[in-house]
Amino acid sequence: MTRNVVISGGGTGIGRAAAQVFAADGDRVLLLGRRREVLEKAGVPGALTYAADLAEPEQVRGVREFVAAELDGRVDVLIHSAGGNGGLEPAPESEDPLDAVAHAWSVNFRINTLTAALLTEALREQLAAPGGRVLFLSSIAAYRGSGSGAYAGAKAALHPYAHDLARELGPRGVTVNLVAPGYVEDTEFFGAGMPAERRAARIAETSTGRAGTPEDVAQTLHWLASPAAGHITSQVIQVNGGAERGH
C-alpha cells in the first residue's frame, strides 16, 4: 500500500535524503519547509510541497488543511527534520550579552522544538491507526552538549515529548521514536562548512573512521517506519559511528 509521508525540513540534508528513500519505495511524500524555492528544487520524484513556518500556529493549520485535501487526511509517517543550528538565524539587534542569551535559547527552541510540537499536534488525529509512525530528529548534542547549551537543550526537549506521545498513541497502534545523528556532512547545519581540523577531530571520535551522511540517517528513519520496527517505540536510536556510546 502506498503510504503518505510528511517530512518537515524536507528540502535539504537529512530531510531530503529521507524523502528520496521513501519516494523510491513508492510512497507519496509531502515536503514542508520555510523556503518554497528550496522545496521545489529538492528533486524528489512526485513529491508534493508546501511552504510554511512551522513555528507559526496559523501556518501549521494551513499544513493540516493541505494534508486533508491532498493526502485524504491520512499521515502514515511523520518525520520532523526541520530545525538546525540557531546560530545561523538572524542575529539580535541588541549587543547586550543577556539579550544574546535570550535570543539563542528562544531561536533554538523555536526552530527545533516548537516546530515539531505544533506539527505533531496539528496532525495527531490524521495519523494512520494502526500503523502510524512519528519520527523526531534529535542530536548527539542532546547527550553531550553543544557549546552554548541552547541547541542541545532544544533537541533534548524532544525526548520527553516523544516518550509522552509514545504512551498516548501506543494504544492506537502508532509508534514514536527519535533518531540522534552525530556529525553528518552535506547538510546546511555548519553553514559555509567546518574547518578541516575540527572535521578531523569529529571523525576521529567515531569507531567507523568516517563522517555520517544524510543517507545513513535516512535509512534508519526508513527502517523505523517499516513493519519490521512495529514493536519499537519510545526509543532514541543513535547514528554516530560510535562517537557516543549507547545509553
UniProtKB/TrEMBL annotation:
GO terms for biological process: fatty acid elongation. GO terms for molecular function: oxidoreductase activity, acting on the CH-OH group of donors, NAD or NADP as acceptor. Residues 3-206 form the Ketoreductase domain. SUPFAM superfamilies: NAD(P)-binding Rossmann-fold domains. PANTHER family: 3-OXOACYL-[ACYL-CARRIER-PROTEIN] REDUCTASE, CHLOROPLASTIC (PTHR42760:SF40), SHORT-CHAIN DEHYDROGENASES/REDUCTASES FAMILY MEMBER (PTHR42760). Belongs to the short-chain dehydrogenases/reductases (SDR) family. This is 3-oxoacyl-[acyl-carrier protein] reductase. The lineage of its organism: Bacteria, Bacillati, Actinomycetota, Actinomycetes, Kitasatosporales.
